[in-house]
Amino acid sequence: MTTSDNVHSEEIEKFGAKAERWWDPTGEFRTLHQVNPLRIRFIREYARIRGQKIVDVGCGGGILSEALAREGGEVRGIDLAPELLEVAELHALEQGVENVRYEGISAESLADREPESFDLVTCMEMLEHVPRPASVVAACARLVKPGGKVFFSTLNRNMKAYLLAIVGAEYVLDLIPKGTHQYDKFIRPSELAAWARAVDLEPLGIRGIEYNPLSRRFRLGKNLDVNYLIAFEKPL
Ligand code: SAH
Fold this sequence. Notes:
The chain is of the alpha/beta class. It is 38% helix and 25% strand. The protein contains eight helices and eight strands. An eight-stranded mixed β-sheet has the order 3-2-1-4-5-8-6-7. A hairpin with a 4-residue loop joins strand 6 (202-212) and strand 7 (217-221). The structure holds S-adenosyl-L-homocysteine (SAH).
């Protein structure tokens, strides 16, 4: 790896160190498990999953990759944390999910090697962990075939997001591990849309992931203040 790589190695180590607890539905990553069905629902609003060639960028232990494969997608999960890729592979094997495979490669390198090769690109809760998120957005735009779709999710940057996603989720409610997020890495929808526009992706739609602390449930909604999902298309 060279210093020009678009990766914070301490982020990779932080996630990799927690690999064995990735699939515990009540563990540190339970929030990812809880929001996963909402992501699948959002993707389905814009795309067919069955039979589609999909790359899941920053796949971690494979929560979204495996769900996409269960929906009939031909999935490649990529990440730079070897421990997570191992956990993802073992989990798919245990579950008998065959149409998913994992690889340790960056989005940028895969885009160099296999440009315009995927019908769908997903990149969830990853952009806020890299030094240059616009470079990942550009790589996703290169990975997708013309006419294909690209999906991102990340955290918005404003006072409410700081209070809910960091103070609330990490310290008060203990929803996600302390130190998971850094406020200045959060991304406003307008910023993400501008990076996407710069690489000719057209916006299709955006939804918020809202949390109700009383019911302790997540749902898709109009409120984009904290966590949001956004879909783009690469024109034909
Ligand atoms: N997308 C998964 C995991 C999110 S956690 C999900 O939502 O379920 C963030 C993931 O991004 C971690 O697995 C981490 O290893 C990965 N990551 C961070 N920087 C990366 C980079 N530069 N390239 C690829 N993956 C990266």
